[in-house]
Amino acid sequence: xxxxxxxxxxxxxxxxxxxxxxxxxxxxxxxxxxxxxxxxxxxxxxxxxxxxxxxxxxxxxxxxxxxxxxxxxxxxxxxxxxxxxxxxxxxxxxxxxxxxxxxxxxxxxxxxxxxxxxxxxxxxxxxxxxxxxxxxxxxxxxxxxxxxxxxxxxxxxxxxxxxxxxxxxxxxxxxxxxxxxxxxxxxxxxxxxxxxxxxxxxxxxxxxxxxxxxxxxxxxxxxxxxxxxxxxxxxxxxxxxxxxxxxxxxxxxxxxxxxxxxxxxxxxxxxxxxxxxxxxxxxxxx
Length: 286
Ligand SMILES: *[C@@H]1O[C@H](CO)[C@@H](O)[C@H](O)[C@H]1NC(C)=O
Ligand SMILES: *[C@@H]1O[C@H](CO)[C@@H](O)[C@H](O)[C@H]1NC(C)=O
Description:
Blueprint: H1 2-16, E1 25-26, H2 43-46, E2 50-51, E3 59-64, E4 67-74, E5 79-82, E6 92-97, E7 117-127, E8 142-146, E9 162-163, E10 172-177, E11 192-199, H3 202-209, E12 217-222, E13 235-242, E14 245-257, E15 264-269, H4 274-285
Antiparallel strand pairs: 1-9, 2-11, 3-4, 3-6, 4-5, 5-8, 6-7, 7-8, 10-11, 10-13, 11-12, 12-15, 13-14, 14-15
Bound molecules: 2-acetamido-2-deoxy-beta-D-glucopyranose (2 copies).
One 2-acetamido-2-deoxy-beta-D-glucopyranose (NAG) binds next to loops.
């Protein structure tokens, strides 16, 4: 109980200490740091850049009816950022930390605390009011509030969001995906994969997908380990030197790509929606 209260205090402190007016600040001061990957370089994963949860402790699996439907990112002790199309009417849960990605529903029903991991029910869902109104893929951003705050560890830690100031113009992103492919998306692999995506001219995505891709979105090209089914809602990120340390910041939310899961994909521009994120967090914590 004491631990929960401490975590809640941290949550409220991180929400209210910095007012939105004035200088830039991190949503959560403990964000964006992780241990180097533990994945052993065996011959079969040497070429596909496997990684693990300790290198990506902010990666969240979004569970609906016991099935992993989407990804998301932990942004503080209580909230997960994801895509609006990953927010379902049905009861939802999120898995954080070192869980068994092949059996995501396991132990969610009991709500038990797994070692190094959490399975937490969602008690509030927010999607952007504009989502679904104009064009299916615009305003594709949502927040999930967990029933209780989670404590940070090497396996569970938030990704950075900078409030009040765009971080930097980034042209090369990291994306962390489950590594499913169009040919094999039946099960989500246990191992996360790292990939690199380059920001490219939005016009290319507009042409390719036959719909306007604007400033609220980012058009990205990946060479390997593309975003695919189950990766929607997950983060596009980059490591940036901030306040003397390298931290991982989130820039995009994976929203859609080609049905082949190769090449181009579009993500929601997180910087564009930072005020929306902040307002939603303040409203929900009030
Ligand atoms: C899930 O719960 C069952 C029954 O309580 C237990 O036997 C099993 O070890 C748990 N699984 C994990 C991954 O903790
Ligand atoms: C994302 O949005 C921010 C804020 O509007 C803007 O400055 C930036 O250029 C956008 N990024 C891209 C890649 O369009």
